[in-house]
Amino acid sequence: MTGTTGTKQPMAPPVEIVLDEPTRQLCDAVTLGRQDPVRLAILAPGGYGKSAVLDHLEQGCLRAGTPVARFRPPHAEPALVLVDDAHELTGPESAELLRIAADDRFGLVIAARPAPRPAGLNEVLGRLRGQLVLRPLDQSRIGKLAGGVPPRLTEFVRTQTGGVPGFARDLLRTLDRTGEPTVPPAALTSFQHELDRADEDVLQVLLAAEIGAGGNAGLLAGLLESSAQRVGEVVEVARATGMLGQDGALLPIAGAALRALVPADRRRTVFGRLARLQLDRGGQVLPFVRPLLGSVHGRAQHGNSDTTTATVFAAAAQEATANDPALAARLYDAAVAAGLPPTEIGAKRAEAAARAGDLDSALRLADEVIAAADAPARAEGAMVAGAALAHRGQLARSAQLFRWSGTNLSSVFATIGLLGTGRLDDARQQFEHPPANEPPTLLAGAMSAAAQGLLESVSGSPTMALSTLASSAEMLEPVGRSVLMPDSPAALGALVALHNGELAIAETLLERAIAAESGGRVLTARHRLLLAWVAMVRGDAETASSRLAAAGSELTPRDWLFAVALRVGLARRASDVAGLRRIWGQAREAVIRHPVDLFTFLPFGEFAIAAARLGERDRLAPHLRQARELALSLGDPPLWTTALHWSGLHAAITAERPEEAREEAAALAAGSGPYPEALAAAATCWLRVVGGEIDRDEVEAAARGLHDAGLWWDGARLAGQAAIRTPDRKAMVVLLETARMLQGGHVQAPRAEEAAADPAGAPRLSERELQVAELVVAGMTYKQVGDRLFISAKTVEHHMARMRQRLGAANRSELLTRLRTLVLPD
């Protein structure tokens, strides 16, 4: 504040000081004596460079020979007097400053913060004739201050510091300019002096600003226990620190300084008081409570509890549940640790855990609530447990809990569970006689429509069922994100669509559900897995694998069942027997862990075909028998049983059980509707193909029928299998082309002409032989090559024999060496 004349050097960054043009011109006029007498004020918050400007003026005056002096009473010789931190002057110093301001022989430049404003300073400022304005640095001036850094760094500095010159300078001095920019601890040390000298009220206002309450006059009045006028004065002093931006919000770097430099207990005290004040006012408390997480557990371990704090945590948890259930679960835990009885919030706590994906905790907490006769919200606890059990694949027990819960919504959920476990009469009874007269909310209406659509799927029109489920999914979108459900209308609708060959509808339903976050985090993986199933059925292995990976690895048992079935299905479609064997252990475990229900017919169908391929049919037989018994208890609804019979057909063909295959084909023929009829025609055709009875037109029609029904891969497979077996070369070419078109691949028909020698006399292979050679050299087995090219393994063997003879290879090893030379010349 008092300084020394002409000796103090400015605290300069690489570029000494960066002034805007008007400020620079005014400084030049002062130092060159063009203003007489000088009467200027520099009013700006801390960090804006007031001291640096005084240093700049002092050095300029010394260079120009203009008399200059730092303020150090008494002053006798006329000079330009530079006064720093004038807002801190009191008593004799203030009187001396007023005397100089009244004496025209002295020039005067006063630097001060806008607040506080002592009466003596106001009188001095009233005698001044101008103001030197300091503004925040823009990105360009920060670049000059830095001496040249990439724009991303200058933007980072501007964002963190708000362009406050002193803060920007300190950050630039300590910033690591090579990696991803972060605020280093060394950049925060300059705030220590500011915080040390701030009085308690100012510090509390700054801490309130950290959590967004700095502009709430009512809260601040309660926090400071002061009048509105006093609060306004304190806020102005807080603004004068420079730590608040133009909008009154705490600058990011200032927030980092508060977190690093203010003791944790002091921060918690302020945040706790603000949270309690906000709760009393009926406002949202979540922003005030976040910083308190973690501290309450330590106090609870030492026997300290606080009912008010516990209530605040519980209120914050309820606010967080919709958007961040994991945070809500932590907040409920904190509320219990602070002294709230566990059963009082048990159901809400269980719901938060379930929506965060922690089904074990959800079931434990919900069970505690259900078991406590005096616990409130036992019905809600049963709903949480029912939803969690559905995600774990325990649909029967889930339905039991939903029925016990006794609300309209739980009754609808129970209907879905009862139907899924084959109890059709109970499901109808449950749906038609809801237990209570409750408001017709959007959620209740959407889920009721979903249950109605599922009932329609087993006893009515598949088209109407799908339409009702699609409407239900759309109805749920505005509210579905914050609801815990055993399943979503979108997932159920997609299953119905998949069972009916409506892949485009399934895809749309699932994509919309993912975009709307229907069912929250706990159902996102289910939607992604069903999307992967759509791609797999279409034969798009790459997209299916990508969607499967997007579902993640933290899966509920129900989701894991579908994920394993997808891996099994993809391996089977790629003819990857080794991969199928690797995944089969997980498939066996998934089958044991997850009971069969109506909504798992697709994965169990995939397991049935794979089991036949691997000679493991006996392991799966009891589960498939359960699936058929369940379907029978529902009246063998064609929409749901068609997939079972289709997979059963292929399992029987793979296991070489012709009589069983004929039974499955007959069951398919008993169905009615476009989808069952397409599969029935294909089944009949497939059996004829396997028996060597191949009619090109029939095969083409059946394959295209499968494609139109959404089974793209199966359609291509049928055409390819027929092409392998037909003795008619012309039919083979046509069927291979059909397979190529239906699968979207690049299957080539064999060339008719024999291979000829090239001009150099070296043997030349046919196009088909080159294709076979490339795949064999790549490491494929004859079976895999045949599957890839839609020919039999025996045909691949014949190609290899002809190539060995033509190339003059003595053995297989020599043949492979020569083939590598031909297909990999580089």
UniProtKB/TrEMBL annotation:
Annotated Gene3D superfamilies: Tetratricopeptide repeat domain, Winged helix-like DNA-binding domain superfamily/Winged helix DNA-binding domain
Keywords attached to this entry: DNA-binding, Transcription, Transcription regulation
Signal peptide (from-to): none
Claim: Transcription regulation is one of the keywords in the record: yes
Gene Ontology BP term (one): regulation of DNA-templated transcription
SUPFAM superfamilies attached to this UniProt entry: C-terminal effector domain of the bipartite response regulators (SSF46894)
Superkingdom of this protein's organism: Bacteria
Recorded GO MF terms: DNA binding
Residue stretches making up the HTH luxR-type domain: 758-823
Designated name of the protein: Regulatory protein, luxR family
